[in-house]
Amino acid sequence: MDGFSCLLFCGQVVEVSTSKTGKHGHAKCHFVGIDIFTAKKLEDIVPSSHNCDVPHVNRTDYQLIDISEDGFVSLLTENGNTKDDLRLPTDDSLLSQIKDGFAEGKDLVVSVMSAMGEEQICALKDIGPKN
Fold first, then answer.
1. Which domain holds residue 28?
2. Which of 4, 33, 85, 131 has its CA 20 to 30 A from that of 41?
3. Coiled-coil annotation: which residues (predicted)?
4. In 3-state terms, what secondary structure has residue 73?
5. Mean of the pLDDT values across residues 28-42?
6. Does the residue 30 lie in any domain?
């Protein structure tokens, strides 16, 4: 998969510019995007006559049940099962909020963003102290 496909499936397009038609070809579109999982800047140039696929990004909220010593979280799904295949986020601010809130015994809900087979915790909601 080329960089442009990754940009569209795992990124947020932040800038698009178009060049004029050249002497021997089509106008070109220059795309600049930010990967939603790694925050890396991605760029690509494609003919303006080509179609672009649009990513399907889901955001799902789960209640945090546990944090393992190896950095995995245990989450409660909507149907009452557990989801145990996600790691803690790498963003330092979000990571410390999750660890601190969990250590304080708060009920926490994490938002998980998923696209193209990748998933990552992207946000946190504090729903109060555990009863």
1. 3-47
2. 85
3. none
4. strand
5. 83
6. yes
